[in-house]
Amino acid sequence: MPKATLTRRGRVVGAACVIGGLLSLAAGGRALDAVVLPGVVALVAGYVQLARVADPEVRRVPPPDGFVGERHEVRIELRPATAGAAGTYLGAIVDEVDDGLEGPEAPIRASVGEGPVTYRVRYLRRGRRRLGPARVTATDVFGLFDREVVVDDTDAVTAYPVCHPIPGRFRRELYAADAVGVSRRREEFDRLREYARGDALRDVHWPTTAKRDEIVVKEFAAETRRGRVSIAGETAREREGADALASAAASLALALLDDGVPVDLTLPAGSVSVRPGPQGRRAVLELAAVTGPGAVAVDDADVEVIADGDGARYRTGGRTVAVDDLRASAGDGGSGAERSPETPSPPPSEPEVNGR
Fold first, then answer.
1. Can you tell me the distance from the alpha carbon of 278 to that of 231, in angstroms, rounded to the nearest whole number?
2. Which of 82, 145, 203, 317 is least buried, going by the fewest C-beta atoms within 10 A?
């Protein structure tokens, strides 16, 4: 760690000791020793304590990938990196996050070395987001000295775009009518399995889940007989509409996957060809999370998604439909892509920061 420096309190105590010592010498008496000596002892003890503190070793447990607007917990474990160094000390921890995330406004104060430190982070904007580096400021028990070190250790988390329901009527127009019957009935039950990221909440098998410590979902063997639906998305302008494009494309792709329809998705950031299931949903969301503005070289897609600063539109079969209009009609009871394939986020009443 860098050298210990006096805090504001330490400077006050140091100044009091100096002034008290000078007054004591000038007066030729010892009446001020009761102030000077304890202050000197505290300064020496505080400096020695921090001199034994080594650079901490940081292990961060990052939160899961999630949707914009969600909150998740980050856990940081700090311990001395050098054997024989002071094992526990008071400290203030600041885990820096990039501008697409929202973390605690104030440093997390905790006893470093006693246990993990946790805080909650909110996803503000989609994309790959950085957690770290961590800045740790060690303080002696009197608060007279501090030493700051930056632990250059980072992790990443992906924030997915917000997804909205797509009316069933619009989805059915994109593939054969009998495909809905097969995928919706899903009569061929296959097995129960552990919940995987991306599973729809409607597939949770609650009786079995209640008996175990993990979420269990139903898996079906039924697959749609319809071929793939291709989606191509681009922005009308070079620098606007990327967020609207990502949300509209991901919403439609997830809704089709929930219906059991395979999807080919092409966006400015790349393309994926996926089948229904957790892996397919994750691939769609990861592509939508990182896509930017731009055009794509696809002319024969079943659905074109065109976005600009005013929103996004679906173009299919010679007609154009505004995404906002579809969203409004879906609010009347239509089913579609769930906003999140995850279990519900923890309630907001939980503490934002917890130092153990």
1. 19
2. 317
What 3-state class would DSSP assign to 190? strand
Reduced to 3 states (helix: H, G, I; strand: E, B; else coil), residue 255 is helix
- Distance from C-alpha of 261 to C-alpha of 219, rounded to nearest angstrom: 16
Q: What's the CA gap between 138 and 1, in Å, rounded?
A: 9
Query: What digits encode the pLDDT tens for the residues 171-222?
Result: 988 885 444 444 444 545 667 888 876 667 778 888 888 888 888 888 765 4
Q: Which helix (H) or strand (E) is 243 found in, with range?
A: helix 242-258
Q: Is 186 left (phi over 0), alpha (psi -120 to 50) or beta?
A: left
The predicted structure's pLDDT at residue 105: 93
What does R_g of the chain's alpha carbons equal in angstroms? Answer: 29
CA distance 265 to 252: 10
Q: Note whether 7 and 47 are within 8 A (CB).
A: no
Long-range contacts of 266-272 (CB under 8 A, 24+ apart): 266/230, 266/231, 266/232, 266/233, 266/296, 266/298, 266/301, 267/232, 267/233, 267/234, 267/291, 267/296, 268/233, 268/234, 268/235, 268/242, 268/292, 268/293, 268/294, 268/295, 268/296
- Name residues of the chain where pLDDT drops below 70: 1-2, 28-34, 81-87, 176-190, 197-199, 220-227, 331-356
CA angle 300, 306, 312 (to 5 degrees): 140
Closest CA relative to residue 199, chosen from 257, 272, 250: 257
Task: Return d(Cα 244, Cα 252) in angstroms, integer.
Answer: 12
Report the alpha-carbon distance of residue 234 to residue 297 in Å, rounded: 10
Structure tokens belonging to residue 119: 């805080």
